[in-house]
Amino acid sequence: MKFKINLMHSITNGNYGLLLDDNITINIRPYYKTRNTSHPDFSYSKIYWTTLIVHESAHGFVNPLVKKYRNEIEKIDIKLYQEKLKELCYGDDLETFINENIIRALECLYVKENFEDSYNQYLNDNLEDRYEKIPEIIELIKDTNYQNLDILTIIKLFNKKLLSFHIPSLEEMSFRQKLLADEETMSYNAKWGSTINFPKEKWEITYKRLINENDKNFYAYLYSNKQKCFIGEVGYWYDEEVGEFITNILIHAKYRNKGYRTIALTMLCDLAKKKGISFLSDTIALDNPSISIFLKQGFREVMRTNEYILIKKRIIKKRWI
Fold first, then answer.
1. pLDDT digits over 86-100, tens only?
2. Fewest CB within a 10 Å sphere: which of 75, 260, 302, 317?
3. What is the 3-class SS of the chain, one letter each residue?
C-alpha cells in the first residue's frame, strides 16, 4: 500500500481520500489559520506540514478499524459527549469523534518524538478543541510500545469520562491538607509563602465556606477515573470586593503535564455557563506558566501589576436583537 499526496489550493487544511488500487490518496491544502486565532499558527512550518500528513494518512487505516466496532460504539452513552459533538458540528456522529481522538493522539506522539519542545503546547491545543480522550489513548499506545493499536480497548475508554468533579465530605478535607502541604505542587505560590498549613481544626469552618448550596460558589475535587484517585481541586467563588467570579484550579504536581488542567478548565467553564454565570476571572502570578493555558482558552488580560495579572473570560455570549 502506498500513500499519494495531492497539494491543493483552498482555505481548509486537508482530507483523506478513498482507497484506490491499494493506494490511499491524501489531499493537503496549505492555509493560514483563521478559525482558531487564539492557537499558534504553525502554517508553512515543518510541524504543520508533517503533522497534517500524519493526520490525513492515519484516517486511511484508523477509520476502517473503528468502523468494525460500530456495535460497541452504539453501547456508549452519547449523552456524555453531546455538548462536544454539537460544538464540533458532528451531530450525533460519535464514530467521527472517536476517529479524531485516536488520530490526534497519534499526531501528538509524533510531535513528542520529533518536535519535543512543542509537545505540551500541541497537546493542549487539541484538548482545548474538546478531544479530551487523547491523554488516555496516548498512554494505551505507549503501554504497547507502539506495536499494536488496540482499537476495541480505546473505544471502551469512551464509556466514561477521564475526569469528574467530586464534592468532598468533611473527612476528605485530608486530601486538601496534603495538596496544600506539597512543596512542588505549591511552588507557584512561592512569593506568598509556598505551602499552606491546613490543620484539622480549620477543616470544618473552611468546609462550610467552600461547600454550600448556592450559585455563587462551587468547589470540588478532580477525580481521575484512570488513576482512581483525586488529582487536584477546582472551583469558583464570587468575590464581593471586585464583583467577579474567581476561578481556582490546582493540580497535584504528580499529575501535571498530562493535559488535566486544560480539561478541568473546560469543565469548569461549561459548569459556569450552565449556572448562568457570564464571566469567570482569575489572578495569576506573572511567573506562573498556567497563564498560557487560560489565555488559549479565551481568557483575556484586563489588568497587570508587578506581581500578577487579572484575566477574564466571557462565558455566556451576548445575544443581539
1. 888 888 899 999 999
2. 317
3. CEEEEEECCCCCCEEEEEEECCEEEEEECCCCCCCCCCCCCCCCCHHHHHHHHHHHHHHHHHHHHHHCCHHHHCCCCHHHCHHHHHHCCCCCCHHHHHHHHHHHHHHHHHHHHHCHHHHHHHHHHHHHCCCCCHHHHHHHHHHCCCCCCCHHHHHHHHHCCCEEEECCCCCCHHHHHHHHHCCCCCHHHHHHCCCCCCCHHHHHHHHHHHCCCCCCEEEEEEEECCCCEEEEEEEEEEECCCCEEEEEEEECHHHCCCCHHHHHHHHHHHHHHHCCCCEEEEEEECCCCCHHHHHHCCCEEEEECCCEEEEEEECCCCCCC
